[in-house]
Design the sequence.
Protein backbone atom coordinates (compact mmCIF):
# COMPACT_ATOMS: atom_id res chain seq x y z
CA UNK A 1 0.00 0.00 0.00
CA UNK A 2 1.30 3.41 -0.91
CA UNK A 3 -0.06 6.92 -0.68
CA UNK A 4 -1.25 6.83 -4.32
CA UNK A 5 -1.96 3.20 -5.25
CA UNK A 6 -2.29 -0.22 -3.68
CA UNK A 7 -0.41 -2.81 -5.73
CA UNK A 8 -2.12 -6.20 -5.66
CA UNK A 9 -0.97 -9.66 -6.70
CA UNK A 10 -2.52 -13.11 -6.87
CA UNK A 11 0.06 -15.82 -6.13
CA UNK A 12 0.13 -19.59 -6.17
CA UNK A 13 1.56 -21.17 -3.01
CA UNK A 14 4.65 -22.09 -5.08
CA UNK A 15 5.36 -18.41 -5.62
CA UNK A 16 4.05 -17.94 -9.16
CA UNK A 17 2.63 -14.46 -9.70
CA UNK A 18 -0.63 -15.30 -11.51
CA UNK A 19 -1.85 -11.77 -11.96
CA UNK A 20 -1.14 -8.27 -10.73
CA UNK A 21 -3.16 -5.08 -10.72
CA UNK A 22 -3.46 -1.77 -8.91
CA UNK A 23 -6.22 0.13 -7.21
CA UNK A 24 -6.26 3.77 -6.09
CA UNK A 25 -5.52 4.55 -2.46
CA UNK A 26 -8.39 6.55 -1.05
CA UNK A 27 -6.77 8.51 1.75
CA UNK A 28 -9.89 10.59 2.53
CA UNK A 29 -11.50 10.23 6.00
CA UNK A 30 -8.23 9.02 7.58
CA UNK A 31 -7.97 6.23 5.03
CA UNK A 32 -11.10 4.50 6.33
CA UNK A 33 -11.94 3.12 2.86
CA UNK A 34 -8.57 1.60 2.05
CA UNK A 35 -9.12 -1.86 3.55
CA UNK A 36 -12.75 -2.15 2.33
CA UNK A 37 -11.55 -1.16 -1.18
CA UNK A 38 -8.86 -3.85 -1.05
CA UNK A 39 -11.34 -6.44 0.20
CA UNK A 40 -13.78 -5.57 -2.60
CA UNK A 41 -11.05 -5.77 -5.24
CA UNK A 42 -9.95 -9.19 -3.93
CA UNK A 43 -13.53 -10.50 -3.88
CA UNK A 44 -13.96 -9.37 -7.50
CA UNK A 45 -10.71 -10.99 -8.55
CA UNK A 46 -11.70 -14.31 -6.97
CA UNK A 47 -15.10 -14.16 -8.66
CA UNK A 48 -13.49 -13.33 -12.01
CA UNK A 49 -11.08 -16.26 -11.66
CA UNK A 50 -13.65 -18.66 -10.28
CA UNK A 51 -11.55 -19.28 -7.16
CA UNK A 52 -13.29 -20.23 -3.90
CA UNK A 53 -12.22 -18.50 -0.68
CA UNK A 54 -11.43 -21.88 0.85
CA UNK A 55 -8.58 -22.20 -1.65
CA UNK A 56 -6.94 -19.00 -0.38
CA UNK A 57 -4.21 -19.31 2.28
CA UNK A 58 -4.47 -15.69 3.30
CA UNK A 59 -3.91 -12.04 2.53
CA UNK A 60 -0.50 -10.39 2.98
CA UNK A 61 -0.23 -6.65 3.43
CA UNK A 62 2.72 -4.25 3.22
CA UNK A 63 2.11 -1.02 5.11
CA UNK A 64 4.04 2.29 4.92
CA UNK A 65 4.62 2.45 8.68
CA UNK A 66 5.59 0.35 11.71
CA UNK A 67 3.60 -2.89 12.13
CA UNK A 68 4.03 -5.35 14.97
CA UNK A 69 4.03 -9.10 14.50
CA UNK A 70 0.33 -9.34 15.33
CA UNK A 71 -0.39 -7.18 12.25
CA UNK A 72 -1.25 -4.15 14.34
CA UNK A 73 -0.25 -0.84 12.75
CA UNK A 74 0.87 1.88 15.16
CA UNK A 75 0.61 4.74 12.67
CA UNK A 76 1.02 5.15 8.92
CA UNK A 77 1.34 8.84 8.11
CA UNK A 78 1.27 8.57 4.27
CA UNK A 79 -2.12 6.87 4.23
CA UNK A 80 -3.45 8.86 7.20
CA UNK A 81 -3.87 5.87 9.50
CA UNK A 82 -3.65 5.79 13.25
CA UNK A 83 -3.67 2.50 15.17
CA UNK A 84 -5.27 -0.34 13.19
CA UNK A 85 -5.68 -4.06 13.82
CA UNK A 86 -5.34 -5.45 10.29
CA UNK A 87 -5.96 -9.09 11.23
CA UNK A 88 -9.28 -8.24 12.84
CA UNK A 89 -10.42 -5.82 10.12
CA UNK A 90 -9.61 -8.13 7.22
CA UNK A 91 -11.30 -11.04 8.98
CA UNK A 92 -14.43 -8.91 9.35
CA UNK A 93 -14.25 -7.61 5.78
CA UNK A 94 -13.39 -10.69 3.78
CA UNK A 95 -13.23 -13.64 6.16
CA UNK A 96 -9.60 -14.44 5.33
CA UNK A 97 -6.54 -14.60 7.56
CA UNK A 98 -4.36 -11.50 7.14
CA UNK A 99 -0.65 -10.98 7.75
CA UNK A 100 1.13 -7.64 7.59
CA UNK A 101 4.45 -5.93 7.96
CA UNK A 102 6.18 -2.70 7.12
CA UNK A 103 6.58 -2.14 3.35
CA UNK A 104 10.39 -2.31 3.39
CA UNK A 105 10.24 -5.49 5.48
CA UNK A 106 7.94 -7.24 3.02
CA UNK A 107 10.13 -6.04 0.14
CA UNK A 108 13.10 -7.66 1.91
CA UNK A 109 11.14 -10.88 2.25
CA UNK A 110 10.22 -10.71 -1.45
CA UNK A 111 13.85 -10.20 -2.49
CA UNK A 112 14.83 -13.18 -0.32
CA UNK A 113 12.15 -15.38 -1.83
CA UNK A 114 12.41 -14.58 -5.51
CA UNK A 115 14.81 -11.66 -5.99
CA UNK A 116 18.37 -10.44 -5.42
CA UNK A 117 18.83 -12.44 -2.21
CA UNK A 118 17.33 -15.71 -3.49
CA UNK A 119 19.00 -18.68 -1.80
CA UNK A 120 19.84 -16.71 1.35
CA UNK A 121 17.95 -16.39 4.60
CA UNK A 122 19.92 -13.64 6.33
CA UNK A 123 19.86 -10.26 4.64
CA UNK A 124 19.53 -6.54 4.95
CA UNK A 125 17.55 -4.64 2.32
CA UNK A 126 17.97 -0.91 1.99
CA UNK A 127 15.69 0.96 -0.40
CA UNK A 128 16.90 4.30 -1.70
CA UNK A 129 14.00 6.39 -2.93
CA UNK A 130 12.40 9.58 -1.66
CA UNK A 131 13.35 8.18 1.74
CA UNK A 132 15.59 5.35 2.93
CA UNK A 133 13.69 2.19 3.88
CA UNK A 134 15.13 -0.87 5.56
CA UNK A 135 14.13 -4.48 6.04
CA UNK A 136 16.02 -7.10 8.02
CA UNK A 137 15.61 -10.84 7.63
CA UNK A 138 17.23 -13.32 10.03
CA UNK A 139 16.84 -17.06 9.42
CA UNK A 140 14.11 -16.38 6.89
CA UNK A 141 12.01 -14.25 9.25
CA UNK A 142 11.39 -10.50 9.35
CA UNK A 143 12.73 -8.69 12.41
CA UNK A 144 9.56 -6.82 13.43
CA UNK A 145 10.98 -5.34 16.61
CA UNK A 146 9.17 -4.76 19.85
CA UNK A 147 7.48 -1.53 18.62
CA UNK A 148 7.25 -2.54 14.95
CA UNK A 149 10.37 -0.45 14.31
CA UNK A 150 12.74 -3.29 13.36
CA UNK A 151 14.79 -2.29 10.31
CA UNK A 152 13.98 1.45 10.53
CA UNK A 153 17.40 2.09 9.04
CA UNK A 154 16.56 5.40 7.37
CA UNK A 155 16.24 7.09 10.74
CA UNK A 156 19.58 6.14 12.20
CA UNK A 157 21.87 9.06 12.92
CA UNK A 158 24.37 9.64 10.12
CA UNK A 159 25.40 13.31 10.40
CA UNK A 160 25.74 14.78 13.89
CA UNK A 161 26.29 18.29 12.46
CA UNK A 162 23.00 18.32 10.52
CA UNK A 163 20.88 21.40 11.22
CA UNK A 164 17.66 20.68 9.32
CA UNK A 165 14.92 18.49 10.75
CA UNK A 166 14.10 15.11 9.23
CA UNK A 167 10.39 14.23 8.73
CA UNK A 168 10.71 12.01 11.80
CA UNK A 169 11.57 14.95 14.05
CA UNK A 170 15.24 14.09 14.61
CA UNK A 171 18.25 15.70 12.95
CA UNK A 172 20.98 13.98 10.96
CA UNK A 173 19.06 10.85 9.82
CA UNK A 174 20.51 8.63 7.12
CA UNK A 175 17.46 9.47 5.01
CA UNK A 176 18.54 13.13 4.95
CA UNK A 177 21.85 12.32 3.27
CA UNK A 178 21.51 8.96 1.54
CA UNK A 179 18.11 8.99 -0.23
CA UNK A 180 17.39 10.39 -3.69
CA UNK A 181 16.25 13.57 -1.91
CA UNK A 182 19.28 13.41 0.38
CA UNK A 183 21.88 13.30 -2.37
CA UNK A 184 20.22 16.31 -4.01
CA UNK A 185 20.51 18.16 -0.68
CA UNK A 186 24.21 17.26 -0.51
CA UNK A 187 24.71 18.55 -4.06
CA UNK A 188 22.84 21.82 -3.38
CA UNK A 189 24.94 22.47 -0.28
CA UNK A 190 28.12 21.82 -2.23
CA UNK A 191 27.02 24.00 -5.16
CA UNK A 192 26.31 26.85 -2.76
CA UNK A 193 30.01 26.92 -1.92
CA UNK A 194 32.84 28.02 -4.17
CA UNK A 195 33.44 25.43 -6.90
CA UNK A 196 34.92 24.75 -10.32
CA UNK A 197 32.49 24.62 -13.23
CA UNK A 198 30.37 21.45 -13.03
CA UNK A 199 27.71 19.72 -15.08
CA UNK A 200 25.53 20.09 -12.00
CA UNK A 201 25.41 23.87 -12.53
CA UNK A 202 23.02 23.32 -15.45
CA UNK A 203 19.55 21.80 -15.60
CA UNK A 204 17.50 20.35 -12.77
CA UNK A 205 19.26 18.48 -9.99
CA UNK A 206 18.15 14.91 -9.30
CA UNK A 207 19.73 11.70 -8.06
CA UNK A 208 19.83 10.67 -11.73
CA UNK A 209 21.52 13.86 -12.98
CA UNK A 210 24.10 13.59 -10.17
CA UNK A 211 24.93 9.96 -10.99
CA UNK A 212 25.01 10.73 -14.72
CA UNK A 213 27.57 13.51 -14.11
CA UNK A 214 29.47 11.18 -11.76
CA UNK A 215 29.74 8.54 -14.47
CA UNK A 216 31.05 11.19 -16.88
CA UNK A 217 33.81 12.07 -14.41
CA UNK A 218 32.47 15.44 -13.21
CA UNK A 219 34.66 16.38 -10.21
CA UNK A 220 31.94 18.02 -8.13
CA UNK A 221 29.50 15.15 -8.76
CA UNK A 222 32.25 12.79 -7.66
CA UNK A 223 32.69 14.68 -4.41
CA UNK A 224 28.94 14.56 -3.75
CA UNK A 225 28.62 10.84 -4.60
CA UNK A 226 31.62 9.96 -2.41
CA UNK A 227 30.05 11.80 0.51
CA UNK A 228 26.71 10.04 -0.03
CA UNK A 229 28.54 6.71 -0.24
CA UNK A 230 30.50 7.41 2.93
CA UNK A 231 27.23 7.92 4.81
CA UNK A 232 25.54 4.88 3.32
CA UNK A 233 28.54 2.52 3.31
CA UNK A 234 29.49 3.29 6.91
CA UNK A 235 25.84 2.92 8.00
CA UNK A 236 25.61 -0.47 6.26
CA UNK A 237 28.83 -1.58 7.96
CA UNK A 238 27.22 -0.82 11.34
CA UNK A 239 23.98 -2.66 10.54
CA UNK A 240 26.10 -5.56 9.36
CA UNK A 241 27.74 -5.84 12.80
CA UNK A 242 24.31 -6.23 14.36
CA UNK A 243 22.82 -9.09 12.34
CA UNK A 244 25.83 -10.15 10.20
CA UNK A 245 23.82 -10.86 7.00
CA UNK A 246 24.86 -13.13 4.13
CA UNK A 247 24.02 -10.41 1.62
CA UNK A 248 23.07 -6.72 1.53
CA UNK A 249 20.47 -5.78 -1.08
CA UNK A 250 20.05 -2.27 -2.52
CA UNK A 251 16.62 -1.40 -3.90
CA UNK A 252 14.45 1.64 -4.60
CA UNK A 253 14.50 4.14 -7.46
CA UNK A 254 18.15 5.12 -7.02
CA UNK A 255 19.28 1.57 -7.72
CA UNK A 256 18.82 2.42 -11.42
CA UNK A 257 22.28 4.04 -11.17
CA UNK A 258 23.59 0.47 -11.45
CA UNK A 259 27.06 -0.96 -10.85
CA UNK A 260 28.84 2.39 -10.22
CA UNK A 261 26.44 2.92 -7.30
CA UNK A 262 27.24 -0.52 -5.84
CA UNK A 263 30.98 0.03 -6.34
CA UNK A 264 31.13 3.32 -4.47
CA UNK A 265 28.95 2.06 -1.60
CA UNK A 266 31.16 -1.03 -1.31
CA UNK A 267 34.30 1.11 -1.10
CA UNK A 268 33.11 2.69 2.16
CA UNK A 269 31.39 -0.46 3.41
CA UNK A 270 34.66 -2.41 3.19
CA UNK A 271 36.58 0.38 4.87
CA UNK A 272 34.44 0.32 8.01
CA UNK A 273 33.01 -3.22 8.23
CA UNK A 274 34.17 -5.65 10.94
CA UNK A 275 36.73 -8.09 9.51
CA UNK A 276 34.36 -11.09 9.35
CA UNK A 277 31.83 -9.03 7.40
CA UNK A 278 34.07 -7.20 4.93
CA UNK A 279 33.35 -9.62 2.09
CA UNK A 280 29.58 -9.64 2.50
CA UNK A 281 28.27 -9.04 -1.03
CA UNK A 282 26.27 -5.91 -1.82
CA UNK A 283 23.86 -6.66 -4.64
CA UNK A 284 20.97 -5.08 -6.50
CA UNK A 285 17.35 -5.84 -5.75
CA UNK A 286 15.72 -7.63 -8.68
CA UNK A 287 11.97 -7.40 -8.25
CA UNK A 288 11.57 -3.62 -8.55
CA UNK A 289 8.05 -2.51 -7.68
CA UNK A 290 6.93 -6.14 -7.37
CA UNK A 291 9.14 -6.86 -4.31
CA UNK A 292 6.29 -5.80 -2.01
CA UNK A 293 3.64 -8.09 -3.47
CA UNK A 294 6.06 -11.05 -3.54
CA UNK A 295 7.02 -10.42 0.09
CA UNK A 296 3.42 -9.96 1.20
CA UNK A 297 2.59 -13.31 -0.39
CA UNK A 298 5.60 -14.94 1.30
CA UNK A 299 4.47 -13.53 4.63
CA UNK A 300 1.28 -15.57 4.32
CA UNK A 301 3.15 -18.76 3.45
CA UNK B 1 36.20 -18.99 28.81
CA UNK B 2 38.61 -16.14 29.20
CA UNK B 3 42.32 -15.70 28.63
CA UNK B 4 43.08 -16.32 32.34
CA UNK B 5 40.32 -18.53 33.75
CA UNK B 6 37.39 -20.64 32.65
CA UNK B 7 34.37 -19.99 34.84
CA UNK B 8 32.24 -23.09 35.31
CA UNK B 9 28.75 -23.61 36.69
CA UNK B 10 26.49 -26.57 37.39
CA UNK B 11 22.83 -25.70 36.79
CA UNK B 12 19.49 -27.40 37.29
CA UNK B 13 17.21 -27.28 34.26
CA UNK B 14 15.07 -24.78 36.19
CA UNK B 15 17.96 -22.35 36.23
CA UNK B 16 19.28 -22.84 39.75
CA UNK B 17 23.03 -22.37 39.97
CA UNK B 18 24.01 -25.39 42.11
CA UNK B 19 27.70 -24.72 42.21
CA UNK B 20 30.31 -22.59 40.51
CA UNK B 21 34.06 -22.85 40.26
CA UNK B 22 36.98 -21.77 38.10
CA UNK B 23 39.86 -23.48 36.37
CA UNK B 24 42.95 -21.92 34.82
CA UNK B 25 43.01 -21.34 31.08
CA UNK B 26 46.06 -23.09 29.64
CA UNK B 27 46.78 -21.07 26.52
CA UNK B 28 50.03 -22.90 25.71
CA UNK B 29 50.25 -24.90 22.44
CA UNK B 30 47.52 -22.82 20.80
CA UNK B 31 45.13 -23.60 23.63
CA UNK B 32 45.05 -27.31 22.79
CA UNK B 33 44.51 -28.28 26.45
CA UNK B 34 41.59 -25.95 27.19
CA UNK B 35 38.75 -28.25 26.17
CA UNK B 36 40.33 -31.41 27.68
CA UNK B 37 40.87 -29.48 30.95
CA UNK B 38 37.22 -28.40 30.93
CA UNK B 39 36.07 -31.96 30.21
CA UNK B 40 38.21 -33.32 33.04
CA UNK B 41 36.90 -30.72 35.48
CA UNK B 42 33.30 -31.54 34.52
CA UNK B 43 33.88 -35.28 34.89
CA UNK B 44 35.34 -34.69 38.37
CA UNK B 45 32.42 -32.49 39.38
CA UNK B 46 29.89 -35.12 38.28
CA UNK B 47 31.79 -37.80 40.18
CA UNK B 48 31.98 -35.60 43.31
CA UNK B 49 28.24 -34.94 43.15
CA UNK B 50 27.27 -38.49 42.25
CA UNK B 51 25.49 -37.33 39.08
CA UNK B 52 25.29 -39.69 36.10
CA UNK B 53 26.06 -38.34 32.64
CA UNK B 54 22.60 -39.42 31.47
CA UNK B 55 21.13 -36.80 33.78
CA UNK B 56 23.02 -34.01 32.02
CA UNK B 57 21.24 -32.11 29.21
CA UNK B 58 24.45 -30.76 27.76
CA UNK B 59 27.40 -28.42 28.04
CA UNK B 60 27.17 -24.73 27.16
CA UNK B 61 30.27 -22.76 26.23
CA UNK B 62 30.94 -19.03 25.94
CA UNK B 63 33.91 -18.26 23.71
CA UNK B 64 35.87 -14.99 23.36
CA UNK B 65 35.47 -14.87 19.59
CA UNK B 66 32.96 -15.38 16.77
CA UNK B 67 31.07 -18.70 16.90
CA UNK B 68 28.52 -19.84 14.34
CA UNK B 69 25.29 -21.57 15.26
CA UNK B 70 26.81 -25.01 14.73
CA UNK B 71 29.26 -24.25 17.58
CA UNK B 72 32.18 -23.80 15.20
CA UNK B 73 34.68 -21.16 16.30
CA UNK B 74 36.33 -19.19 13.50
CA UNK B 75 39.12 -17.76 15.64
CA UNK B 76 39.56 -16.76 19.28
CA UNK B 77 42.68 -14.61 19.61
CA UNK B 78 42.75 -14.34 23.44
CA UNK B 79 42.90 -18.10 23.94
CA UNK B 80 45.07 -18.69 20.85
CA UNK B 81 42.49 -20.75 18.96
CA UNK B 82 42.08 -21.05 15.24
CA UNK B 83 39.08 -22.85 13.75
CA UNK B 84 37.51 -25.36 16.17
CA UNK B 85 34.42 -27.56 16.03
CA UNK B 86 33.30 -27.48 19.66
CA UNK B 87 30.36 -29.87 19.22
CA UNK B 88 32.60 -32.57 17.78
CA UNK B 89 35.45 -32.07 20.25
CA UNK B 90 33.25 -32.12 23.34
CA UNK B 91 31.41 -35.17 22.06
CA UNK B 92 34.76 -36.95 21.67
CA UNK B 93 36.07 -35.73 25.03
CA UNK B 94 33.11 -36.21 27.34
CA UNK B 95 30.29 -37.74 25.31
CA UNK B 96 27.89 -34.87 25.97
CA UNK B 97 26.10 -32.55 23.57
CA UNK B 98 27.78 -29.12 23.45
CA UNK B 99 26.39 -25.71 22.51
CA UNK B 100 28.44 -22.56 22.14
CA UNK B 101 28.30 -18.90 21.31
CA UNK B 102 30.33 -15.75 21.64
CA UNK B 103 30.89 -14.66 25.27
CA UNK B 104 28.89 -11.43 24.98
CA UNK B 105 26.05 -13.33 23.30
CA UNK B 106 25.83 -15.87 26.13
CA UNK B 107 26.01 -13.03 28.66
CA UNK B 108 23.02 -11.43 26.90
CA UNK B 109 21.14 -14.72 27.11
CA UNK B 110 22.01 -14.98 30.81
CA UNK B 111 20.76 -11.45 31.52
CA UNK B 112 17.54 -12.29 29.66
CA UNK B 113 17.03 -15.48 31.62
CA UNK B 114 17.87 -14.41 35.15
CA UNK B 115 19.28 -10.87 35.08
CA UNK B 116 18.55 -7.27 34.12
CA UNK B 117 16.36 -8.21 31.14
CA UNK B 118 14.33 -10.92 32.92
CA UNK B 119 10.82 -11.10 31.49
CA UNK B 120 11.89 -9.82 28.06
CA UNK B 121 12.85 -11.71 24.96
CA UNK B 122 14.16 -8.89 22.77
CA UNK B 123 17.26 -7.12 24.03
CA UNK B 124 20.63 -5.67 23.28
CA UNK B 125 23.43 -6.17 25.79
CA UNK B 126 26.51 -3.97 25.64
CA UNK B 127 29.41 -4.77 27.95
CA UNK B 128 31.81 -1.94 28.74
CA UNK B 129 35.14 -3.32 29.91
CA UNK B 130 38.60 -3.34 28.37
CA UNK B 131 36.68 -3.60 25.12
CA UNK B 132 33.04 -3.17 24.11
CA UNK B 133 31.14 -6.45 23.70
CA UNK B 134 27.67 -6.87 22.31
CA UNK B 135 24.98 -9.53 22.34
CA UNK B 136 21.63 -9.37 20.57
CA UNK B 137 18.61 -11.46 21.44
CA UNK B 138 15.50 -11.52 19.26
CA UNK B 139 12.48 -13.57 20.35
CA UNK B 140 14.58 -15.33 22.95
CA UNK B 141 17.29 -16.43 20.53
CA UNK B 142 20.84 -15.19 20.00
CA UNK B 143 21.54 -13.53 16.66
CA UNK B 144 24.62 -15.54 15.65
CA UNK B 145 25.00 -13.98 12.22
CA UNK B 146 26.19 -15.67 9.07
CA UNK B 147 29.89 -15.44 10.03
CA UNK B 148 29.40 -15.68 13.80
CA UNK B 149 29.73 -11.88 13.94
CA UNK B 150 26.18 -11.06 15.07
CA UNK B 151 26.26 -8.42 17.81
CA UNK B 152 29.89 -7.36 17.21
CA UNK B 153 28.88 -3.91 18.34
CA UNK B 154 32.29 -2.84 19.65
CA UNK B 155 33.67 -2.73 16.14
CA UNK B 156 31.11 -0.45 14.56
CA UNK B 157 32.48 2.85 13.32
CA UNK B 158 31.95 5.65 15.84
CA UNK B 159 34.62 8.26 15.05
CA UNK B 160 35.49 8.85 11.38
CA UNK B 161 38.39 11.17 12.32
CA UNK B 162 40.16 8.55 14.50
CA UNK B 163 43.82 8.10 13.57
CA UNK B 164 44.89 5.18 15.77
CA UNK B 165 44.21 1.57 14.82
CA UNK B 166 41.78 -0.57 16.80
CA UNK B 167 42.86 -4.17 17.67
CA UNK B 168 40.55 -5.32 14.89
CA UNK B 169 42.53 -3.45 12.23
CA UNK B 170 39.96 -0.72 11.52
CA UNK B 171 40.03 2.87 12.74
CA UNK B 172 37.33 4.66 14.73
CA UNK B 173 35.64 1.64 16.37
CA UNK B 174 33.17 2.18 19.22
CA UNK B 175 35.55 0.17 21.42
CA UNK B 176 38.21 2.87 20.95
CA UNK B 177 36.01 5.58 22.46
CA UNK B 178 33.38 3.89 24.62
CA UNK B 179 35.18 1.17 26.61
CA UNK B 180 37.02 1.64 29.93
CA UNK B 181 40.20 1.95 27.86
CA UNK B 182 38.42 4.23 25.40
CA UNK B 183 37.24 6.78 27.93
CA UNK B 184 40.79 6.96 29.32
CA UNK B 185 42.02 7.69 25.78
CA UNK B 186 39.44 10.46 25.45
CA UNK B 187 40.56 11.94 28.76
CA UNK B 188 44.26 11.81 27.83
CA UNK B 189 43.57 13.56 24.53
CA UNK B 190 41.61 16.26 26.31
CA UNK B 191 44.25 16.69 29.02
CA UNK B 192 46.93 17.13 26.35
CA UNK B 193 45.12 20.30 25.23
CA UNK B 194 44.87 23.55 27.12
CA UNK B 195 42.51 23.20 30.09
CA UNK B 196 41.44 24.58 33.45
CA UNK B 197 42.71 22.76 36.54
CA UNK B 198 40.97 19.37 36.86
CA UNK B 199 40.89 16.47 39.30
CA UNK B 200 42.06 14.39 36.37
CA UNK B 201 45.45 16.15 36.44
CA UNK B 202 46.34 14.17 39.57
CA UNK B 203 46.74 10.45 40.17
CA UNK B 204 46.26 7.61 37.70
CA UNK B 205 43.57 7.91 35.03
CA UNK B 206 40.96 5.15 34.87
CA UNK B 207 37.32 4.84 33.93
CA UNK B 208 36.64 4.90 37.68
CA UNK B 209 38.68 8.04 38.40
CA UNK B 210 36.99 9.80 35.47
CA UNK B 211 33.48 8.89 36.66
CA UNK B 212 34.38 9.79 40.26
CA UNK B 213 35.51 13.26 39.12
CA UNK B 214 32.37 13.53 36.95
CA UNK B 215 30.15 12.82 39.94
CA UNK B 216 32.01 15.52 41.89
CA UNK B 217 31.24 18.05 39.16
CA UNK B 218 34.72 18.34 37.63
CA UNK B 219 34.26 20.31 34.38
CA UNK B 220 36.85 18.47 32.33
CA UNK B 221 35.59 15.05 33.48
CA UNK B 222 32.12 16.19 32.47
CA UNK B 223 33.33 17.09 29.00
CA UNK B 224 34.98 13.68 28.63
CA UNK B 225 31.98 11.73 29.95
CA UNK B 226 29.59 13.65 27.67
CA UNK B 227 31.75 12.79 24.67
CA UNK B 228 31.90 9.12 25.66
CA UNK B 229 28.12 9.14 26.16
CA UNK B 230 27.54 10.79 22.79
CA UNK B 231 29.44 7.95 21.10
CA UNK B 232 27.73 5.22 23.08
CA UNK B 233 24.22 6.70 23.16
CA UNK B 234 24.18 7.45 19.42
CA UNK B 235 25.55 3.96 18.66
CA UNK B 236 22.84 2.35 20.82
CA UNK B 237 20.18 4.43 19.03
CA UNK B 238 21.38 2.97 15.71
CA UNK B 239 21.42 -0.62 16.95
CA UNK B 240 17.96 -0.03 18.32
CA UNK B 241 16.67 0.85 14.83
CA UNK B 242 17.90 -2.52 13.58
CA UNK B 243 16.28 -4.93 16.05
CA UNK B 244 14.06 -2.56 18.09
CA UNK B 245 14.64 -4.25 21.47
CA UNK B 246 12.36 -4.08 24.53
CA UNK B 247 15.31 -3.21 26.72
CA UNK B 248 18.98 -2.26 26.43
CA UNK B 249 21.27 -3.74 29.09
CA UNK B 250 24.63 -2.25 30.12
CA UNK B 251 27.16 -4.65 31.63
CA UNK B 252 30.90 -5.00 32.11
CA UNK B 253 33.27 -3.41 34.63
CA UNK B 254 32.31 0.18 33.80
CA UNK B 255 28.72 -0.45 34.85
CA UNK B 256 29.95 0.01 38.45
CA UNK B 257 29.66 3.77 37.75
CA UNK B 258 25.93 3.23 38.36
CA UNK B 259 22.95 5.49 37.71
CA UNK B 260 24.94 8.57 36.53
CA UNK B 261 26.36 6.37 33.74
CA UNK B 262 22.88 5.24 32.68
CA UNK B 263 21.56 8.82 32.83
CA UNK B 264 24.22 10.29 30.57
CA UNK B 265 23.97 7.44 28.04
CA UNK B 266 20.19 7.84 27.98
CA UNK B 267 20.50 11.58 27.29
CA UNK B 268 22.22 10.89 23.95
CA UNK B 269 20.24 7.74 23.22
CA UNK B 270 16.95 9.67 23.45
CA UNK B 271 18.33 12.48 21.31
CA UNK B 272 19.09 10.20 18.36
CA UNK B 273 16.71 7.24 18.67
CA UNK B 274 13.82 6.76 16.21
CA UNK B 275 10.56 8.01 17.72
CA UNK B 276 9.10 4.53 18.43
CA UNK B 277 12.29 3.54 20.28
CA UNK B 278 12.95 6.69 22.34
CA UNK B 279 11.42 5.24 25.50
CA UNK B 280 13.20 1.90 25.38
CA UNK B 281 14.62 1.48 28.89
CA UNK B 282 18.38 1.34 29.42
CA UNK B 283 19.11 -0.79 32.48
CA UNK B 284 22.05 -2.31 34.34
CA UNK B 285 23.09 -5.91 33.94
CA UNK B 286 22.54 -7.83 37.19
CA UNK B 287 24.53 -11.04 37.00
CA UNK B 288 28.05 -9.56 36.86
CA UNK B 289 30.65 -12.22 36.12
CA UNK B 290 28.01 -14.95 36.33
CA UNK B 291 26.10 -13.74 33.24
CA UNK B 292 28.23 -15.99 31.04
CA UNK B 293 27.62 -19.23 32.95
CA UNK B 294 23.88 -18.50 33.19
CA UNK B 295 23.69 -17.82 29.48
CA UNK B 296 25.77 -20.88 28.58
CA UNK B 297 23.36 -23.01 30.61
CA UNK B 298 20.36 -21.35 28.92
CA UNK B 299 21.91 -22.07 25.54
CA UNK B 300 21.69 -25.79 26.32
CA UNK B 301 18.07 -25.57 27.45
Sequence:
Amino acid sequence: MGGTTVKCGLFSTKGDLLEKWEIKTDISDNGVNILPDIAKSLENKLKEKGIAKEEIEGVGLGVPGPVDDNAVVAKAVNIHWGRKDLKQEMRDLIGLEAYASNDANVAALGEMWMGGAKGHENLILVTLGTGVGGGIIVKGKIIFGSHGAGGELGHTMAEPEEEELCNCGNKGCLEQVASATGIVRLAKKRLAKEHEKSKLDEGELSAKSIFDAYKEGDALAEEVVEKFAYYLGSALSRFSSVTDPEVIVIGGGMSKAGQPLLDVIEKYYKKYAFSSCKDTPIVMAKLGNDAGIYGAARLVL
Q: What stands out?
A: The CA atoms of residues 124 and 136 of chain B lie 5 Å apart. Chain B is about 40% helix and 15% strand. Chain B touches chain A at residues 66, 74, 122, 134, 136, 138, 143-153, 155-157, 160, 168-170, 172, 230, 234-235, 237-246, 271-272, 274-277, 280 (CB under 8 Å).
